[in-house]
Amino acid sequence: MDAQEKIKSQLQENDVMLYMKGSAMFPQCGFSGKAVEILKACGAKFDTVDVLSNPDIREGIKQYSNWPTIPQLYIKGEFIGGSDIMMEMYQSGELQEKIQQQLG
């Protein structure tokens, strides 16, 4: 299975998926840490993929989304954005709404 197929499979299996550096318990960069905190503040149940331990996924996810940076958030397979976009959406209430729709 190549990286693109693996990414598609991960996104189909998980409603809220965060591609990040490190893990939710041990983020390896500030932006990834911020993304995890935002998702926790929303009460989201989410899974993560550590791109540092998966170089194929690290490059593959950038191609998949056509977005050059990590972290990357997906809800129901839809690319949402990185930590700055997540913060803007969180502050406006839009992110909580999207996550509630996913839970309900």
Would you kindly provide a written description of the structure presented here, covering whatever features stand out?
This protein is an alpha+beta fold. The protein has five helices and four strands; from the N terminus they run αβαβαββαα. It has a four-stranded mixed sheet, sandwiched between helices. A hairpin with a 2-residue loop joins strand 3 and strand 4 (78-81). Helix 2 (30-41) runs parallel beside helix 4.
H/E element order: HEHEHEEHH
Question: Which geometry do the CA atoms define?
Answer: globular
In percent terms, what proportion of residues is strand? 15-25%
The main sheet orders its strands as 2-1-3-4
The counted number of beta strands is 4
Average pLDDT over all residues: 95
| Rg from Cα | 13 Å
> Span from first to last CA?
32 Å
How many helical stretches?
5
What's the assembly state of these chains?
single chain
Q: How much helical structure, as a percent, in the residues?
A: 40-55%
Sheet of most strands = 4 strands, mixed
Overall SS class: alpha+beta
The stretches of 5 or more residues where confidence is low (pLDDT under 50) are none
